[in-house]
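Reposting from the mailing list since nobody answered there.

I have sequence plus structure tokens for a pair of proteins and want to know whether others read the tokens the same way I do. The first protein:
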Amino acid sequence: MFSLQFLSLLSVASALIAAPPESLDKRANNFKYLVSFGDSYSQTGFLITGAKPSTSNPIGNPGFPGYTTTNGNNWLTYLLHPSSSSTLLSYNFAYGGATTDASLVKPYTSTVLSLVDQVTLFESHVAPLPSTANSPSLTSSNTLFAIWIGVNDVGNAWGSSNWSTLSKQIINQYIAQAQKLYNSGARNFLFLTVPPIQKTPLVLAEPASVQSQEGAAVATYNELLKAGVSSFKAKNGGIKTWVYDTTTVFDEAISNPTKYGAKDATCYNADGTTCLWWNNYHPGQAIHKLVSAGVASLVGI
């Protein structure tokens, strides 16, 4: 077993803004806001006490695309379609190094905001959402809620002797946070699975047995998540849920690295573009763009 450590805020360099997809005007869901929670795979450095999102800067603060772990756009900022007629406005509570619940799986430092902490911030500063379509701000119908978390829960805890029990506790707390969002007015939920972190350069440097066991832990977590989402949907009326399986696009890039500008599937570079990986645990821009396109297709945004 080994621990993974992450930086909560990272330097950002200029990046090309992704062009809106050709099918943008054919979106199935007319969402105007995206409220997101997660870890470094999603972080942009947004502070709820700072500038709020606007068409000139859809992430609100800091400057677009924010403090990401790609040296540019991540999956969220690729989704926003800046400067287009359908810019999504983003309230992104994701925090680098986050676990679902710090009392279950400790982050690398106590100052990291867990999913529990992030949802509490949302409840304190944004909730509740009105249901009326005439509201000029976030409503139950015009806002998509997205959660992508778990790489630190699995990465830090898969080797624990009580993983079988702990993984269930993590997912129970995860779904409990979704329930809090529902109680605050959320009705549209996107959940992203943990990608195949056993194929990151960090884990590939470990023995094959570690890779296999961690891969099995990822699969266990994702099956529990899917079951949890199914129960959550059955319990609550008037909601839409989507579960996006990130494995497919990660495997696509890893199987075809040269197609995505990398010399191989294991190199990493802080420029975020010449390798598939930004560092030995975080994907670069090409993989994030694939995730974004997959999400857009699944949800209809």
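The second protein, same order (residues first, tokens after):
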Amino acid sequence: MVIQDIQVGRISLPLARPFKTALRTVDRVEDVVVRVLSDDGAVGYGEAPPTAVITGDTIGSITCAIRDFIRPALLGRDVEDLEGNMAALSRCMVKNTSAKAAVDMALYDLWAKRWNAPLYRLLGGARSSFETDLTISVNPVDEMVADALDAVSKGFSILKIKVGKEGLADVERIAAIRAAVGPNVALRVDANQGWTAKESVAIISALEDKGLDIDLVEQPVSAHDIDGMVYVTERVRTPILADESVFSPADAVELIRRHGADLINIKLMKTGGIHEALKLCAVAELSGVSCMIGCMLESKLAVSAAAHLCCGKGIITRADLDGPSLCAVDPFEGGPIFDGPTVSMTDAPGIGITSVPCDHWS
């Protein structure tokens, strides 16, 4: 079973409502899709979003990386030689983590299909389903409250509240949402690097003083401000989740060593795919630090790969895999079952996606 070709295409899917954070506003998923073809006719699928403000990757850079560097490095290689393929993928170029992630997940898809098993079982099989949160975008308070109530009416019991634009005013925003949804809905707060360290401590302390019972606060300060992450984590009771501060296992080691966070958010587009994410999970397991699995603005294709990792590894205790729920349509066939907040695996081999809506592969 030899890699015969690697092709790229594009997908464009409307979001149900604009996605707004402290970093950007987006109204469509505009992603690169990948398919890896083997000589026996099997196909593995992957996807990469151009999240320039976080990973530095654009549509052009992802496409170029795959066509000009990754494809030549992998053509003719044995699909079963997973470690060798991942080594070739890693050394063919530095960075470009989103492009690598798309090809990585397609290779894992093919590899699991070769063994006729769903990927999550080959990754450890810790569980067969999990609950994801749903993101509430940054908007005027009354709109965020309405969005939160709508999410709860659809069965979501964990909400991820985007903040980071208005400093201490975010406290009243979160308080209004808590008052509306009641005490039984878990609230996660994501500042997307929007606060300073001292501002973070003041805001989180105010949330604690109001008894708002926040599950966690994600990436309160700049990704590169590890001193700031340490400062915040040491001074508040609420668990701090590192997102943009951790791309690699080495980043995780340093952050954990300095106690710059209580939890780590794994995203395939940051790590460069499942292979490196598994190393990050190993670091977390050795350190006793739980992980969340998250996603960028990805469709069901890439989120399905992340869902398999979530079900594979027990160290991943929280999920922020709401990408399919944010999309207005689901044009894919196969894959895990996304039923509101519940994501369930099937027995389909590989990642499970059997059809990708791309008109032109090249």
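Reply #1 (J.P.):
I read it the same way you do. The domain at 121-355 is CATH 3.20.20.120 (TIM Barrel).
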